[in-house]
Amino acid sequence: MASVTRQLKKAARIILIGAPGVGKGTQTERLLTRYPQLTAISSGDLLRENVRRRTPLGIQAESLMQAGKLVPDDVMLRLISSELVSRGWISQPASTASTSVPSAPEIAPSASFILDGFPRTAAQAASLEKLVPINFVVHLLTPPSIIIKRIASRWVHAPSGRVYNTEFNPPKVPGRDDVTGEPLTQRPDDSIDTWKQRLKQFEETSKPLLEHYEAKGCLWRVEGNSSDEISPKLFAEIERRFG
Fold this sequence. Notes:
Blueprint lengths: L12 E6 L5 H11 L4 E4 H11 L2 H11 L6 H14 L26 E4 L5 H10 L4 E6 L2 H9 L1 E4 L4 E4 L26 H25 L2 E5 L3 H16 L1
Parallel strand pairs: 1-3, 1-4, 2-3, 4-7
Antiparallel strand pairs: 5-6
């Protein structure tokens, strides 16, 4: 798609919700290109970075993960809080108490971002509200039959990470990498059975999450068979709300 940049007049704090394979990553990349004010904040990346840097939060999270436990919501919230403070986007310092996060901090007008990986549940969303209220939640919808076809068509060259799709970006020689000529493979998580399991899990957790944001009045649904079909609708809605 042609890359045209736009300026946002109001802060956009965005979450994209959609089934695995729906194209959240593609939409995030396009939004970052079109709206330079936006920044992507990945909770998973923050977690890995804090573990790598041996911060107190990272050490705490790593010990939990090594014990086979999930990183609790309050630790994830404090990671996000710390990041927002470091960017100068919220006024209050991150709480060091394990039971709370800053309550209703002042939010900078420049705090425009796409939050990836958190929240995944309605309880996490309610906790996040106390830290930074999200004001635009996008539910991306593509028919499962289309996503299954997309996944079945996706092949990778594992050593380089090059991705092909037999429908719209096929290799020059079927089943072979364009550069090395080596065989292409499918990722284990690209199997249809794996995808169906992930879809079932997503549907169970996303329903109350979507209901939470619908009640807040910031949920917007967009449907399309491809990312190219969805992007223009998404851009138009963002410009209507924040442009």
